[in-house]
Amino acid sequence: MTSAESSQPARSWTRLDGVDLLRGLAIFFVLMNHVNMRLLGAKVPYTHGLPPQLVSSLVWNGQFGVQIFFVVSGFLITSTTIRRWGSLAQINLRDFYRLRFARIAPLLLLLLAVLSVLHLAHFKDFVVSQKTGGLGRALLAALTFHINWLEAHRGYLPASWDILWSLSVEEMFYLFFPLFCRLFRRGRSILLPLLVFAVLGPFARSHAFNPNPVWREYSFLGGMDAIAIGCLTALFVTRQHPSRALRWMLGSLGAALLLFSLCFSIHAYRWGLGRNGLNMTILAAGTSMVIATLSRTQWRSPRILAPLAKLGQLSYEVYLTHVFIVLGLFRLFVAANKPMWAVPVLFLCVIVLAGILGKLVARGYSEPINRWLRRRWGDGPSRLGSVIEPMPAGRGEEPISA
After folding, report:
1. Quick check: 59 and 35 in contact, CB under 8 A?
2. 132, pLDDT greater than 70
3. Please, are residues 289 and 254 in contact by the beta-carbon 8 Å criterion?
4. Alpha carbon 129 to its chain's center
């Protein structure tokens, strides 16, 4: 690839159904968890009499959902980078940062503007306390991607700000990602820093190495291992062509690890996996195996799962805006005297309305600005996504795009 070719971003591609479903599952867990936290705060005993593991799997998997997000993010960014520039070593730093800005900044800046207005208007649940540094400190942390550090050292911000902790982890990783790609550009040396991140993750989440409970959940290294595992997955998929039998084994093992992580989390904690930070590593490994398998097949999700896949496609917009839905509907629930029969209705309405709001925001704001910025900077795709390189001819399989 010549320098002229590498400087011109490639066109975008279709999507991987399995990846969208994973993102949909992740945002579902986040939504369920945030409604659950409101109900517990209001002392609504809605889980009384339910099996503990069922409760844990449905409403306590929000952190696991974010971990899935991180793996998917690393996979998509790496596979897109390889397709766009031919290899990680050929990455164009200026264009990489421009494309990240086009995707992340418009909605983030709008959200911060809205939150600032709500804070200044003294709306309940949106006021940033002086204990955490006030509005100015929160804005600085959000714009320089260290909300997680601020909360670990000064206490939690309002829920609408708190969700930005994961964006801090993700964007801090991508701030240095292209620099590492250029620095470790010889052969497969890029594997070294990615493997280091993958190894350090459990230590950052371990009780023994990290006594701060908030930092155990929100630390940079505690989330970057999943992103690195996603990057390694993309490198594996683009360089290796596993046989059908190996793909079946990877997919089965990955699905088993996901099932264990999400449906047997209490047993995992009893076995010490949570205390040692390994439960998240197992979840990330399972997610990566499933992605690796789905990216090398022609699997298409059934129509019954279309709403979940659509929720996954809108995951960024839903994630940044869903707190408004959660808080609004919860106030109606409290005003109705917190009827127990309305609890499942509350969960369902939050999921549906958060999806609708995310779609409206994506269609009317973030996607048009994203495309406008990309066209201005020389990209101009009509559809945005990532891609997996086609299989070599003669393997009996169609090219697979993400």
Report:
1. yes
2. yes
3. yes
4. 27
